[in-house]
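pasting for the record
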Amino acid sequence: IPKGNFREDLYYRLNVVNIHLPPLRERGEDVMLIAKYLLTKYGEEFNSKVKGFTPGAMDAMRHYPWPGNIRQLENRIKKALVLCERTLVGHEDLGLPLEGPGIVPLAEARENFQRQYILEILERNQGNRTQTARDLGVDPRTIFRYLEREPDAPEPGGES
């Protein structure tokens, strides 16, 4: 207004009610609600096979500061839907760093890595546990026993 770039009378007409919308980084779990909505909306529009986010992607989205707010989140999700070849979007598909929980005991880190790695290979093999065992160089019974204890294991696919 002082520079003359905006009419003062128009400013006062528009400035009747002020609504404070906090930036995305201050919205906590709202980030995930918005991300899931955008994934569904654009997933249908782009006819994508992507159905959700990996736990790492969800953690990364919660911790990322989102300087571009919702537009940045929306653009990252659109890009991931176009480029992701899996059914779950990972943090790397969103171009986000994986926020680690800090230092954890080696046994726990090894177990977490093994779990994620087995599930990723299983997903690549479309649930085929026998092929996953071959790819990992282990006896198929090892994979079957491991997945019996795994609550997030996908349904078995075609076995060969």
